[in-house]
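Annex B. Sample input.
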Amino acid sequence: MNFFEKLQCVKEDNHLVGMSVVSYQNNEFKDYYLGEAYENYTMHSDVYYRIASISKVVVATGILCLLEEGKVDLDEDISKYLGFTLRNPNYPNDIITLKMLMTQTSSITDGFDDEEMTNDERIDGYNGVNRKGIDCKLEDLLINKDSKYYSDLTFAKYAPGTRFCYSNFGCGILACIIERVTKISYDEYLNQKIFSKLNIKASFYPNKLADEEIISAYNFFGGKKELCRNKELFISKMMQEEIGQNYRGPAGGLFIKPKDLALFMKSLTENDGVILSKETRNLMLNKIWSITNEERLTEFDYYGSYQAKGLQVAIWERGNHVLYGHTGSAYGVRTIMAFDPVKKAGLIFMTNGGIYKTAHSGFAGCIEDTLKVWENTIYDEEI
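Annex B, continued. Sample output.
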């Protein structure tokens, strides 16, 4: 079978509604589109996805642009940029840094488990206000203990910088820092520093893409496909707050075409200096955190694909090669951006719904299956 036929098998095996794949190597892109973008409409190259947590890499790149401008220091107390003193109350003498936020070792969590149905009515902490769309200031979540939205669960029982904890809120705080330093929206700053330089159109605010095609996203219940989000729902549920308060959306809310995301990936892969200097790109990919046996055996089940991290970039050792990037999962969508700077190759995979299983690697099965198809064309080794 050729590459496209193998992708068709991945789609069928995982019951995917639609899928988009962009393969990149040595300055050459090949893109593939299968299935439906939305009801009775075929997937194609100009359809936008909400790419979920791959968005975190884009936001972190914005922080690194501020670093190059001399406006932030990765090891500085983030209180300096937020405009208020922030501490984990369990460790009042320990600062929290940008580097900790980008490696998800800040000890700031999303609060209660939002997958647990008994928590459905809760409104405290990041997960509470995020789920309910509540108008709540960042300060009320982080320092105002008299606020009904404040939660002790926001802060872990271990010290900042000592352990990994996957945190969407942490990425939201990064976006607020971008806004408080630049005095413009994080979306506009990222457009200036990334999207415009790549000559692409992308945004965290889907209303800015109202004239574009946006995928519908689906969940499956009992094998039956059900609509989770469409263009109208994405726009209606969008929240845009005043400058410095946009902590909701940055962790997963970027809307972009797969091939345009591949251009962003290419810049990181080639280390071409278009977005970041060569030195800063290398800093981004440098391994800072690695999973410990204790983490692997305890709270790490859900994030099993995490092995190591640079600055918001996941690092995966696979066979005799290493990939960098990030995955995404939200509203029925599954995504991955994975690239190899040595081979100057990369993969973008996105799907808008399917019957998902989890592979031994910790990736969603459809992601693992697609990775293997791609790796078999890039590497002369068994994965």
